[in-house]
Write a structure and sequence with these properties.
This protein is mostly helical. The protein is built from 25 helices and no strands.
C-alpha cells in the first residue's frame, strides 16, 4: 500500500469521525471482532484485563482510565477502517506475536523522549512520529486525539505509542501481497451504510457501486432510515442527513415501490421539515423521486396534492409526479388531463389566491395542457382564484397560444428518471463545512517540528510534516467520535 497523503488521510478521517452516533458502537465492536489481538492489547496497556473484566470495552466508562480505553480503541477502530479502505480489501487478522513484535520495535523510540515532567505537548513525541511509514496519518490522528479534552502528561507517550502501534501493524498487513484464495471484496452492507452516512466521504462513489450489488440487504435499511426521519425528524436534523438523501435516490433509481409509504411520510411532514431534512432535494427532484417509487399508486399521488395539511411545495411535487409517469410512458396523458379538469372545476378545495390554485394553473401551462383546458382555466381566472402577481394573465395567454415553445418536452427532459444515483447526488461529494469554522480533525495544539534528516531503517520512510488546520468549531462533531457536538463533549471542559 502506498503512503497516504495528508490530504487523503484528512478526508478519510473526517468521514469516519463524522459518522452518525447510531453507528459508532457498531463500528467499535467490529474492530474487536476483526482485530481482537490488537484491540485487546491496546486496552490492556491502559487498564489490564484483570482489572477491567472480560467484557468488551465501551466508548464510555465508569472511570477516567476505562473511558480512555474507549477513546483509544475508538480511534484505533477508525484507523483500521481507514487502512482497509485505502488497501481496497479486507485486512487479515494480526496475531498476538505480531502485535508484540511491532510493539517492541516502537519501544526503541521511547528512549529518545523527554522525561514526563518536560512534556509541553504533541511536539515532544516527535521521535515516535518520525519513523512511521504512514506519518501523515499518525500525526493527524495524534493531533486529533490531543486537541480534545485536557490530557495528562503521561498520556502523550502512552497514547502516541499505542496509536503508532495500530498504524504500523495495520499498514504492515495492508502492504502484504494477496495470498491465494484471499477475498478482495471491500464492502459489506454495514460498510456501505456507514460510507453513505457522511457528506464528502472520499469512498462515496465506490460505496454506491457496491450498493447495487448489495441491493437486497440495503433496501430495508434505506427504507428504515426514511422511517426514522418520519418518526423523529428533530433527531434526524441533529445529524448528517446524507444516508437519508442517498436512500431517496437509490430507492428511486431501483424503482423500489415498497419504499412508497416511507417517501409519502417524509414528504408529508409538517411545515418546512421535509426541506430542512433534504436541503434542495425536494425542490429539484421531488417529483421524480415520488414518481419512481409510486408504482400504480397514482390515486395516492392525487390524495397528496389535495391534502391541505401538506406543505404547499410538497403538494406540488405530487402533482408533477403524475406528469412524470405520463412522460415516462407509464400512464396515459388523457387520464392526467381528465384529473386536471376535475381539479379546475371543483375538486380542488382551496380558498381564492391560495397557492394551490397558482400551482395548479402553472402546472397546466408547463405541460402544454392550457389550450386543452382553456375553458376551465378561464373560469378559474374569472372567479379570481389565481394570484395574478404570482402568475400573470399574460403568461397564461402566451401558453394557451403556444408562444412559449415546447414546454412539455422541456418538462420531460428536466424530469427524467434517476439512472445514476451517484451523478444525481454529486452535491454530496463536497464535505460539509460549518459556517463558524472549517473543521479539520487533524488539528495539532502545537505545530510539529520538521522531521529529522537522520537515516531510518528501510522498512520506514519519512512522508513530510502534517499541516496545521483551524481550531475545532463548537458545533462540529467531537473529534474523538462520541457522536456528540464538540460543545457538548470535550468542549464542555
Amino acid at each position: 500500500m502506498n503512503v497516504i497523503s495528508n490530504e487523503r488521510a484528512l478526508a478519510q478521517w473526517k468521514a469516519l469521525v463524522y459518522l452518525p452516533a447510531k453507528f459508532v458502537t457498531r463500528f467499535h465492536k467490529r474492530f474487536f471482532d476483526e482485530q481482537p489481538y490488537l484491540a485487546r492489547f491496546l486496552a490492556d496497556c491502559i487498564v489490564p484485563a484483570h482489572r477491567r473484566g472480560p467484557e468488551l470495552p465501551t466508548l464510555s466508562g465508569d472511570s477516567p482510565l476505562e473511558e480512555q480505553v474507549g477513546e483509544v480503541t475508538g480511534f484505533a477502530a477508525r484507523i483500521a477502517e481507514l487502512m482497509r479502505r485505502e488497501a481496497g480489501r479486507p485486512l487479515r487478522q494480526i496475531s498476538q506475536p505480531e502485535v508484540e513484535s511491532y510493539f517492541e520495535l516502537i519501544l526503541n523510540a521511547l528512549d529518545k523522549l523527554p522525561k514526563p515532567t518536560q512534556f509541553r505537548g504533541l511536539a515532544q513525541v516527535e521521535p515516535l512520529l518520525a519513523r512511521c511509514r504512514q506519518r501523515n496519518l499518525l500525526s493527524g490522528v495524534c493531533a486529533a486525539y490531543f486537541s480534545g479534552a485536557p490530557r495528562k502528561l503521561l498520556d502523550y507517550p502512552l497514547v502516541t505509542t499505542l496509536l503508532r502501534l495500530t498504524v504500523d501493524a495495520l499498514d504492515g498487513v495492508a502492504s502484504e501481497p494477496l495470498s491465494e484464495g484471499e477475498t478482495t471484496e471491500l464492502w459489506t452492507a454495514d460498510r456501505v451504510e456507514e460510507a453513505l452516512s457522511v457528506q464528502g466521504n472520499p469512498m462515496r462513489h465506490e460505496a454506491l457501486q457496491a450498493a447495487a450489488r448489495l441491493r437486497s440487504e440495503l433496501t430495508p435499511r434505506l427504507i428504515g432510515e426514511l422511517e426514522e426521519w418520519a418518526a423523529n425528524p428533530e433527531a434526524a436534523l441533529e445529524e448528517d442527513a446524507s444516508l437519508g438523501v442517498h436512500a431517496l435516490y437509490l430507492l428511486a433509481q431501483w424503482r423500489e415501490t415498497s419504499a412508497w409509504p416511507s417517501f409519502r411520510k417524509v414528504f408529508s411532514l409538517p411545515g418546512q421539515t421535509p426541506h430542512e431534512l433534504t436541503g434542495e432535494v425536494i425542490t429539484v427532484n421531488g417529483a421524480v423521486l415520488l414518481a419512481s417509487v409510486a408504482g400504480e399508486r397514482h390515486s395516492e399521488l392525487r390524495e397528496m396534492f389535495e391534502e391541505e395539511a401538506i406543505e404547499e411545495f410538497c403538494r406540488g411535487t405530487a402533482l408533477e409526479a403524475l406528469a412524470c409517469l405520463v412522460a415516462w410512458g407509464e400512464r396515459p396523458r388523457a387520464e392526467l388531463i381528465a384529473y386536471l379538469s376535475e381539479l379546475l372545476t371543483g375538486r380542488l378545495q382551496a380558498s381564492p389566491k391560495n397557492f394551490a390554485w397558482t400551482s395548479l394553473v402553472d402546472f397546466v401551462c408547463s405541460i402544454e395542457a392550457s389550450s386543452e383546458l382553456r375553458l376551465e382555466i378561464d373560469a378559474v381566472l374569472a372567479r379570481g382564484l389565481v394570484d395574478d402577481k404570482a402568475i400573470p394573465a399574460s403568461f397564461i395567454a402566451a401558453a394557451q397560444a403556444g408562444r412559449l415553445g415546447s414546454l412539455w418536452t422541456e418538462f420531460a427532459d428536466v424530469h427524467s428518471p434517476i439512472r445514476d444515483a451517484a451523478e444525481a447526488t454529486a452535491f454530496l461529494d463536497e464535505p460539509f463545512e460549518n459556517d463558524d469554522s472549517p473543521v479539520s480533525a487533524f488539528a495539532p495544539d502545537v505545530p510539529l517540528p520538521a522531521q529529522s534528516s537522520a537515516k531510518v531503517p528501510a522498512r520506514f520512510s519519512d512522508s513530510g510534516p502534517v499541516k496545521a488546520a483551524p481550531k475545532m468549531g463548537r458545533n462540529e462533531p467531537c473529534p474523538w467520535g462520541s457522536g456528540k457536538k464538540y460543545k457538548k463533549c470535550c468542549g464542555s471542559n
